[in-house]
Amino acid sequence: MGKVVVVTSGKGGVGKTTSTAALGAAVAKTGKKVALVDFDVGLRNLDLIMGAERRVVFDLVNVIQGTAKLSQALIRDKRLETLYLLPASQTRDKDALTEEGVAEVIARLRSVFDYVFCDSPAGIERGAQLAMRFADEAVIVTNPEVSSVRDSDRIIGLLDARTMKAEQGELVQKHVLVTRYDAARASRGEMLSIDDVLEILSTPLLGIIPESQDVLRASNLGAPVTLSEPLNGAAKAYLEAARRLEGEDLPVVVPFERKGFLDRLLGRRAA
Amino acid sequence: MSILDLFKRRTSAPVARERLQLLLAYERQSRGQPDLVSILREEIMAVIAKHVQIDQDYLQVSMDRGATMSTLEIDIQIPNKSAAPLAMAG
């Protein structure tokens, strides 16, 4: 029985899709069978981030409506044999997803794959609730910024109330993944620190992904950053986060930027 | 503003943390409960409507939350024309 992990955030643009791709690829690299499911019906993007946008024939909605088989809709990654993508529909509206349909698809994926990553749409509406509905674990992607932290708190509330696990009296295991972290700004007191975020959300930390040009470059090229540039800072942080997700006890090091005397004096921004 | 302030770097993160802590404490508490302000608004409206005819738009109810105390602000505008009690109109 595979594990179902929802990647969610409430707020849009914080890095859910990028993180789904990077974490999924990192886990698949270890030989585990991984399926990435895009729940953002109408605004799919995981296919683009994965570089599979031209290979989409059938999608999640087709499978739920019975017009395609699951095996027909799953796209195998060209780089990793163990990595698969189930794209969202681009044309239909989000009401095309039914809870029964999603339940069946997730159950079938769970029986075949070791990990099923559900890339949630932004918001707290139906689509986001269906993405988290059958999750065993949740990765809450948060930027160290007030609106993102507030929305994450809201999502945590939903994870504790509206998921199948919560309704059965169990808990979805939650992890915070801080993305777009700028160590220089945090050290100058211009950005919420990791401690601030963790204290406010009182949820364990999965990792800290530094703000990085590499992530954008990876998106441009259509490759998860953990595959295209595994030695980069952001990629390393994702690879470590993936190991923690698999249960490894790996300490998180908060990125720190040492300020030189001149920087202090001039209040200079580190590049 | 003194000359010293020019050199002192303002840090905004502590402000952000405090604002968030305050806000989330309130939001967590009221989670799952119906919106208090809109209930108050509806009931106040019903009471006033018994005696004076006013438009929905003339009633403003807002709640300002503070650390130790919150203030409820109710602003009711009664236009002079329709200010006459219903009993007299009837």
From TrEMBL, chain A:
<dbReference type="InterPro" id="IPR010223">
    <property type="entry name" value="MinD"/>
</dbReference>
<comment type="similarity">
    <text>Belongs to the ParA family. MinD subfamily.</text>
</comment>
<dbReference type="GO" id="GO:0000917">
    <property type="term" value="P:division septum assembly"/>
</dbReference>
<dbReference type="Pfam" id="PF01656">
    <property type="entry name" value="CbiA"/>
</dbReference>
<dbReference type="InterPro" id="IPR025501">
    <property type="entry name" value="MinD_FleN"/>
</dbReference>
<keyword id="KW-0132">Cell division</keyword>
<comment type="subunit">
    <text>Interacts with MinC and FtsZ.</text>
</comment>
<dbReference type="GO" id="GO:0009898">
    <property type="term" value="C:cytoplasmic side of plasma membrane"/>
</dbReference>
<comment type="function">
    <text>ATPase required for the correct placement of the division site. Cell division inhibitors MinC and MinD act in concert to form an inhibitor capable of blocking formation of the polar Z ring septums. Rapidly oscillates between the poles of the cell to destabilize FtsZ filaments that have formed before they mature into polar Z rings.</text>
</comment>
<keyword id="KW-0717">Septation</keyword>
<keyword id="KW-0067">ATP-binding</keyword>
<dbReference type="InterPro" id="IPR002586">
    <property type="entry name" value="CobQ/CobB/MinD/ParA_Nub-bd_dom"/>
</dbReference>
<dbReference type="InterPro" id="IPR027417">
    <property type="entry name" value="P-loop_NTPase"/>
</dbReference>
<feature type="binding site">
    <location>
        <begin position="11"/>
        <end position="18"/>
    </location>
    <ligand>
        <name>ATP</name>
    </ligand>
</feature>
<keyword id="KW-0131">Cell cycle</keyword>
<feature type="domain" description="CobQ/CobB/MinD/ParA nucleotide binding">
    <location>
        <begin position="5"/>
        <end position="224"/>
    </location>
</feature>
<dbReference type="GO" id="GO:0005829">
    <property type="term" value="C:cytosol"/>
</dbReference>
<protein>
    <recommendedName>
        <fullName>Septum site-determining protein MinD</fullName>
    </recommendedName>
</protein>
<dbReference type="GO" id="GO:0005524">
    <property type="term" value="F:ATP binding"/>
</dbReference>
<dbReference type="InterPro" id="IPR050625">
    <property type="entry name" value="ParA/MinD_ATPase"/>
</dbReference>
<keyword id="KW-0547">Nucleotide-binding</keyword>
<dbReference type="GO" id="GO:0016887">
    <property type="term" value="F:ATP hydrolysis activity"/>
</dbReference>
UniProtKB/TrEMBL annotation, chain B:
<comment type="function">
    <text>Prevents the cell division inhibition by proteins MinC and MinD at internal division sites while permitting inhibition at polar sites. This ensures cell division at the proper site by restricting the formation of a division septum at the midpoint of the long axis of the cell.</text>
</comment>
<keyword id="KW-0132">Cell division</keyword>
<dbReference type="InterPro" id="IPR005527">
    <property type="entry name" value="MinE"/>
</dbReference>
<keyword id="KW-0131">Cell cycle</keyword>
<dbReference type="InterPro" id="IPR036707">
    <property type="entry name" value="MinE_sf"/>
</dbReference>
<comment type="similarity">
    <text>Belongs to the MinE family.</text>
</comment>
<protein>
    <recommendedName>
        <fullName>Cell division topological specificity factor</fullName>
    </recommendedName>
</protein>
<dbReference type="Pfam" id="PF03776">
    <property type="entry name" value="MinE"/>
</dbReference>
<dbReference type="GO" id="GO:0051301">
    <property type="term" value="P:cell division"/>
</dbReference>
<dbReference type="GO" id="GO:0032955">
    <property type="term" value="P:regulation of division septum assembly"/>
</dbReference>
